[in-house]
Hints:
Order of helices and strands of chain B: EEEHEEHEHHHEHEHEEHEHEEHEHH
Number of helices of chain A: 13
Oligomer: heterodimer
Strand order of the largest sheet of chain A: 1-2
Structural class of chain B: alpha/beta
CATH class of the largest domain in chain B: Alpha Beta
Radius of gyration of chain A: 26 Å
Radius of gyration of chain B: 24 Å
Shape of chain B: elongated
Shape of chain A: elongated
Number of strands of chain B: 14
Number of strands of chain A: 2
Largest sheet of chain B: 6 strands, mixed
Order of helices and strands of chain A: HHHEEHHHHHHHHHH
Strand content of chain A: under 5%
Number of domains of chain A: 2
CATH topology of the largest domain in chain B: Rossmann fold
Largest interface: A-B, 34 and 40 residues
Amino acid sequence: MSKLNEHHPSRLHGIWALTKRELKKWLKEPIILLMAILQPVIWMGLFGKAMNLGNMFSSSNINISDIVLPGVALIPPQSGSITISGTALSQMFADFGPTLMKNIFGVTDYFSYMSVGMISFIVMFTTMFSGMSIVWDRRLGFLNKVLSTPVSRGAIIFSKVLNASLRSMFQATIILALAVIFGLQVSSTFSVVNILGIYAAIFLLCVGLSSVFLAVALRSTKWETQMAIVNLINLPLMFASNAFFPISQMPDWIQAIAHVNPISYLTDATRQLTVLSLDTSSLIIDFTFLGIFAAVFSFIGIALSWRYLTK
Amino acid sequence: MSEEVIRTEGLTKVFNKHLTAVDHVNFSVKQGEIFGFLGPNGAGKTTTINMLITILKPTEGRASVLGFDIAKQDNNVRNVIGVVPQEYTADEDLTGLENILLCADLYGIPRDVAKERAMDLLKLVELTDFKDKKVEIYSGGMRRRLELACGLINRPKVLFLDEPTLGLDVQTRTATWEYIRKLKKEFGMTLFMTTHYLEEADALCDRIAIIDHGKIVVVGMPEELKHSLGGDIITLSIKDDPDVSELIRGVEHVKEVKKEDGSYRIKAEYGEVTAPFIIEALRSKGYTVTKLMLTEPTLNEVYLEYTGKSMRDTEESREAFRTQRMTMRRARA
């Protein structure tokens, strides 16, 4: 034991060691994963299936009976009456539903629309809660122990971010697969390569969101405070986005929020890559926004955490 | 290799601009010794250790560990030290071995080397049989030993122990002392520890510094400190209880005599030699000694002398701390 520690951890080594710890802990608690999967599944089932918007306008619901017009109502008035065949009318409006859905939602069934939104939902939840684990690391002294080792401060922060991203990607994959089983209809432009695009979009959102939450979590010693913050902002962020409802139908003030809400951009990117026929220009806008969001917020988050960790 | 492993000069930490936790502390720790920081809770022990292990930046003053400045060369310091924190930091969901390997990863030790070292360390702390068990089933003593093993994975030259036996029962505490002594003996390691157990400081440390309100009040070897009080305490009672203080004071090596409720408390050098002389002196004047007790001064007396309060006053907060930690552990489970 006479020689000094001759090994120096590379940046990547430290990040991976800490990420591995989190992932190991996570995999050892399959119940947590199950719950995390079950929640969006319930949402998809109840929210996505119960309110079947697409079906509401389908031809089976457009059941118009024969319309009898009295001749006097016509211009010029005629004697007798005219009967318009209800069946013919129903057929005329049969395409009305799908067209309406397509114009507003971009897809013909609401389930396909919202189940992709669920991916954003799960990414947001996973990211916010995984940032909280640092509160525990702090309270239990683990953070201090790690700080006394040569691992770089950046690695400590980034391992948390990476952990949140990997978890989100994994859960998003399961949700997407389940959604397909439950009736999600992918568009003709969908290919397996698109999944990589989805991962990239998820990663960008995770980096931005989790860095900020980490910085907040690092400062609060109370787990409850963090819970309260997450619960407060989760719902508004979710509903002031295109995750459940199209932005175009929202009142102006919600539209204003939805247009800066990164959830909207992740959701749109995911939709472009799955259920919509791919529109490259809007995909580029989505990725640009997510990229800027990730860069700006991770810079703020990491700068704040850094200051805290080197107190 | 310099003789001085740790050296501080005016080391100070002020929290929130007005709370001085550590106040211009100067001391040095020599190669191969066990140096103890003794003081009650809130005295500044943990803050000092946290500055030395580079978790906290000093507000003022400087310190070096193995010649590396703790503020400017913090990464060099981190590489050569081992830390056994006050809390149980091992991950409960992972096994003992996984925990040690995680520590190894944090130091960038390659897997094959790490595995070999981990097995050796597990043997050293006698946890080999439990290496594949989750830490949540470990007892307090086992957790402490696991922390010790984690702190040694990078083969540190200096090991920092923050309250190594806090909250452990007497037997486990004694066993932990054995491991610490073994480390010193086998690896010639330098150990810096904090404690508020007087017995622990007395039994383990080569030198101790008593710290109170962020300031070091005295540094020295436990024996030296006890001796500095001016000798042993002889307590005696005599029949019929006349005042013989003056007579006792006349005996050689007696330094101080105090009469307390019918007995005399005598401070004397070389107590075991002086006591017979006192008995002889009293008998020659016709007094009969009915009871005599000789006590060597303990660190508690030393502590009392330098800080003006008894160590036992801090007992209550120790209990409070233990309760708090139990709650936290339960909260986590």
